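Recall the central idea of this unit: under ordinary conditions, the amino acid sequence of a chain determines the structure it adopts. In this exercise we apply that idea directly, starting from the sequence alone.
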Amino acid sequence: MTELGAPVKTFSLGFEEESYNELPQARLTAERFGTEHYEKVLTLMDAQKIIELLPFFDEPFQDSSCLPTFYISQLAGSQVKTVLSGEGEDEPLCVNIE
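Accordingly, the structure predicted from this sequence is:
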């Protein structure tokens, strides 16, 4: 429970390819902080959605996270109206913080 009177909602995407999948860590974090956690595992079939999204992008276009961003937005939008993103400087700068 939070000061809001309900748990904070969290959203995470995972991947079928285990080397890219961070859902186990997201689940641990959600459990530790008592959030109401939602997640989706992206599949190869989900990747085909990119064909439908391409007309919405300007050229030149270079954003390798557009598909995950679409799916996390869709997942979050099914539960909330506003989100705070967890993307930090390690993503755009490709910094390994391990």
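Helices lie at 23-33, 44-47, 50-53, 66-77.
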